């Protein structure tokens, strides 16, 4: 995997997409994010139909050329090929990383949940390109029954994972806390609401990048 993972990993949850003018909204949003330098984006839709997911995916793919942005589909490894996306993120309860890898092939990105208080058994041996860790802080974007691990939890997981694993810290991370999360050992911070609830997500993403470099 030659892809260089970014320090900021935006996660576009379908809850921020308006029903009216949906495709136009996504087309403008995708183009502005790609122009702002987003190199990795996850599209997450837990409740939509297959047709809605594929329709959204088609708009995002057209607006965000592959040479600029890698697109990750949450959960639905079975739709990655059809959507033209570049990979999949599977959590505990979804397909295993090995099952996802068989579906999407060796050239696409596979991400999976790596652990909360501790790394999951076998996480480092799984055929995944990055491991999501957390929740770091409390979040409203994604339902979870796990307790926040905080900065100390990120540091502990980095110690367990070693220096080479790509760790994507998620949940409740803000511009004010992101540097501390990265300094504790996260490779990148996954951000949903803090970027996509902003008046202009592309401008907000740029603020994050400038703050973290």
What does this entry look like structurally?
Helix 1 packs parallel to helix 2 and helix 1 runs parallel beside helix 8. The chain has one domain: Alpha-Beta Barrel (TIM Barrel). 36% of the residues lie in helices and 18% in strands. It contains eight helices and eight strands, in the order βαβαβαβαββαβαβαα. It is α/β, with parallel strands linked by helices and 213 residues long. It is globular, with a radius of gyration of 16 Å. It has an eight-stranded parallel beta barrel, surrounded by five helices.
Rg, alpha carbons: 16 Å
- The CATH topology name reads TIM Barrel
User: Low-confidence spans: pLDDT under 50, at least 5 residues?
Assistant: none
Number of domains: 1
Spatial order of the strands forming the largest sheet: 1-2-3-4-5-6-7-8
Number of helices: 8
CATH class wording: Alpha Beta
User: Strand share of the residues?
Assistant: 15-25%
Q: Which structural category do the helix and sheet elements fall into?
A: alpha/beta
| Helicity, as a percent range | 25-40%
**pLDDT averaged residue by residue:** 95
SSE run: EHEHEHEHEEHEHEHH
Which descriptor suits the 3D outline? globular
Number of E-type strands: 8
Short description:
The chain has 213 residues and is of the alpha/beta class. Helices cover 36% and strands 18% of the residues. The protein has a single domain (8-212), classed as Aldolase class I (TIM Barrel, Alpha-Beta Barrel).
Give the topology, please.
Elements: E1 8-13, H1 22-35, E2 40-44, H2 50-63, E3 70-74, H3 80-83, E4 87-90, H4 97-104, E5 109-115, E6 130-133, H5 150-161, E7 167-170, H6 175-183, E8 188-191, H7 193-196, H8 201-212
Parallel strand pairs: 1-2, 1-8, 2-3, 3-4, 4-5, 5-6, 6-7, 7-8
Helix pairs in contact: 1-2, 1-8
């Amino acid at each position: 995997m030659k892809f260089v993972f970014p320090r900021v990993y935006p996660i576009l949850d379908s809850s921020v997409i308006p029903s009216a003018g949906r495709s136009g909204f996504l087309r403008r949003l995708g183009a502005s994010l790609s122009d702002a330098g987003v190199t990795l984006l996850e599209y997450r839709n837990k409740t939509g139909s297959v047709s809605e997911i594929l329709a959204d995916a088609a708009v995002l793919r057209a607006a965000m050329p592959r040479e600029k942005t890698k697109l990750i589909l949450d959960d639905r490894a079975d739709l990655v090929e059809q959507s033209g996306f570049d990979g999949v993120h599977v959590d505990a309860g979804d397909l295993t990383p090995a099952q996802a890898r068989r579906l999407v092939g060796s050239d696409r990105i596979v991400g999976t949940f790596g652990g909360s208080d501790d790394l999951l058994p076998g996480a480092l041996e799984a055929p995944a390109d990055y491991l999501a860790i957390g929740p770091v802080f409390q979040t409203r974007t994604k339902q979870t029954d796990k307790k926040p691990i905080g900065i100390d939890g990120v540091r502990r997981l980095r110690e367990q994972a070693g220096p080479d694993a790509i760790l994507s810290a998620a949940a409740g991370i803000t511009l004010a806390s992101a540097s501390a999360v990265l300094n504790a050992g996260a490779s990148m911070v996954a951000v949903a609401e803090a970027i996509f609830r902003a008046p202009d997500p592309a401008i907000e993403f740029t603020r994050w990048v400038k703050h973290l470099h």
